[in-house]
Amino acid sequence: MPKSYGPRRPRPVQAKSQEELDAMVRKMRAEREAPDNYREHSLRLHGWICAKCGREFELADLHLLTVHHKDGNHLNNPSDGSNWENLCIYCHDDEHSRSLLGDYLR
């Protein structure tokens, strides 16, 4: 039988029960609050402002705000946010290039 390159037939959608929908919502909420989602947690704790230059961000340009790990260990994510600071991409690049430049000059 030759392979068809036409559009696929849509799969039948199976209705989910209310319990399944509630479980999906609980799972999504838990993932949102998960400790590995430290960026959103840091944004809630420290606000939408760069800790270095003081630039304030809005939702439209929030993607330019990053989380910097003060000790350099991206696996060290305490829930109190003591190892994080929110930096704009320019200050974050500057922070990391300083250590590279220091290593080079040594």
Structure description:
This protein has 106 residues and is mainly α. The protein has a single domain (20-105), classed as His-Me finger endonuclease fold (3-Layer(aba) Sandwich), CATH 3.40.1800. The chain has helices spanning 18-32, 38-46, 89-105, and strands at residues 65-69, 84-88. The chain has a two-stranded antiparallel sheet. The longest helix is centred in the C-terminal third of the chain and has 17 residues, at 89-105.
Descriptors for this entry?
106 residues; mainly alpha; His-Me finger endonuclease fold; 3 helices; 39% helix
Set down the secondary structure blueprint.
Elements: H1 18-32, H2 38-46, E1 65-69, E2 84-88, H3 89-105
Antiparallel strand pairs: 1-2
Helical run tally: 3
Distance between the termini: 69 Å
Global mean pLDDT: 85
CATH domain fold name = His-Me finger endonuclease fold
User: What is the CATH C level class, in words?
Assistant: Alpha Beta
Strand order of the largest sheet: 1-2
Strand content bin: 5-15%
Please compute the radius of gyration using only Cα atoms: 22 Å
Tally of individual domains: 1
- The CATH architecture designation is 3-Layer(aba) Sandwich
Largest sheet: 2 strands, antiparallel
Helical content band: 25-40%
What sequence of helices (H) and strands (E) makes up the elements? HHEEH
Cα shape = elongated
Structural class: mainly alpha
Uncertain runs: none
Total E-strand runs: 2
Summarize, please.
The protein is mainly α and 106 residues long. It has three helices and two strands, in the order ααββα.
